[in-house]
Amino acid sequence: MSKQLHELTFEFKAEKPKDFSEDFLHFGVVGSGDMEVIVEHKDLDGAVRIKITSPVTGYEEVWRRVLERFVNDTGVANASFEINDNNATPVVVSLRLRQALAEIS
Amino acid sequence: MSSKWENLQKRSYLESNARSRAIGLVDTGSFTELAGPRHRISSPHLPLLGEAVEFDDGIVTGVGLIGKKPVFVASQEGRFIGGAVGEVHGAKLVNIVRMARQSYDKMLEDNPDLPEEKRPAVVISFDTGGVRLHEANAGLLAHAELMDQFQDCKGKVPIIALIGSRVGCFGGMGFVAAATDVIIMSQFGRLGLTGPEVIEEELGKDEFDASDRGLVYRTTGGRHKYIMGDCNFLVADSIAAFRETLQEVLRKPYVEIAAMGSIGSLEKVESQLKLVELCVETAPKDSKDVWKTAGNEFPDDLVDMPLDEFLKTVKRLRDRQVPQPPSAQQLRK
Amino acid sequence: MEDLIGQGRAAIDIIVDPDSFLEGEVGELSITDEDFGASAVIGTAKLNGEICTIIASDAMTANPKFPVVYAGIIGLEEGYKMAMAVYHSIKADKEKPLAEKRPLLLIVDTPGNGAGKQEEIFGMNKATGAYQMALAEARKAGHPIVAMVVGRAISGGFLCHGLQVDHVLSLSQKFNTMIHVMPITSIARITKLDIEWLQELAENNPVFAAGPDYFYKLGGVEELIDSIEAMRERIIAHVAEVRAMKIAGRDDELGPWGRGALSLERGSRQARSKVMQIMNDEFAEVAERYLS
Q1: Domains of chain C (ranges plus CATH)?
Q2: ipTM of the complex
Q3: DSSP labels for B298-319?
């Protein structure tokens, strides 16, 4: 019956990489059905590392698809993402990550 | 940065998040967050129960400036577990108040003629239902620490409460807010001790229907609290409106600010007891009965009236009350 | 006597000097209306020969004016009545040196604050807040204040009548003493977690478990007392200890802040001090910009 928070980690490489140069970026609120993210520049040889902490399990493939698409669409590279999730839907995840990157400009 | 700050000003206080409120309340570019998300100090207890965590544990704490005045800000995030107070959340809130008081002590030591315009202040934006159940005992102890720190601020640092968020301010945080010097609310803010659901459980649905939003708002909402004198200012729902009134309050000398609170001295307690006497005398069935007692002939009209008009026409209970000690009759019946 | 639940008045008699309790009188304050704040008992007694303010709940007497105030609940009148007892204690000893400030003894057996419509309309939060602020003021004015939990110390009731004192003492679990925000059964229901598993978790992490033992581990209770007869002697000892600490200027080791340090000693609430330290360090780096 025990419940625990679960962690998932992914690594992707964008097809047309664009370096993420900010030291630190935070965006979002962990409301119900929502998430927050910290993004930091990290030398990963062009890759992106994304760590998710979530009370929900069993959606690994959904996460992989949403995140891979986000990385390819934005070209974000050399960045570490840390997400605290609380049941966010794929649409919300995608939106929040894009909003987070938009904070830079 | 500054354009961003300017954008924040127009935003609804109700719809904003805790960080936007904190940044927008102080002067542009002046806010430094302390123990923010960068440090990733989330609750050590929630993961054990399988609950989602937040890097700031649902509260933004930091320091900014309003003019020359250092302003120590705590802003609760109601969207994260109802803004509830756990160990980390509570410790941040307690420590920001302590920090303000210690800063005052230090400034005074360096400059015994510290001008009013530099006297530190504490601003707390409430958005909370009180103790966080998942770490309830630690949350409870934090409430006691907060009241202790408030007392240390007496005679030194003013504490201003802002209530205009979705969760409002309930549970133990209700009396924490009552112990501040000044309360600024919007009409969407709610302040109380016992949440509507618990009252319904206690009294039955006939007496108190927690799903009746009108009833809930006229019992604990900003307009009612303004009539009762339990909030000092009622403002429009924007960060700018809260900031403007905050600035106005902080321009006053400390003694004047400290006199505005509802409780904190024997005289104030005696004056509150007159209100309790009034409650016993009039036995109101609804807040509107009290509004009428305060001199509002058509209390129903006050509910939906535009804010400007409300502020112009409303009669407040304290306009009518002349605070005096409880009558000998009351104590020696 | 198996326990003292609902026996606030009996507890007063067990603890103070025989026949010394004078109800309704504290300094200049004199309350003779029996209905006023009927669920709260205030007065003056002698404790080890010394004048002492007593504040307790009376679970047997409901407040006839407020239907939600019964069984030891603190209502509007009760909160302010308790606050007045504190302020009048301060006033009475205003000119006295620390060694002679009268102690205040809180006898704790309350299920909480008044949860009613009139209470919310008139602001129950102010009544319970007023009492806490009064206690904090008295503590800082040098009065030794001790709370003795003899029955129920529940959530907001405990905050109001208990946690604002210098030292909190509690009868141990075998006296059916209850200290909690919510019983673990309710926590299990709301969090949808298995109750046995929750109880197991609580063994190592007392932050949500119910009972005096867990509050002891958290530093929320200074001492657990194993017999009803021992209460008097232990309270007298704590009053003396607290007074000596105040005379020595060790106020920071007492009250809610002192219990923060106590939690660390007892191996809990470590995140509390950690986050405070981070804030202090971070502020030290920028303080110049704000304070000069």
Answers
A1: 8-291 (3.90.226.10)
A2: 0.97
A3: -HHHHHHS-HHHHHHHPPPHHH
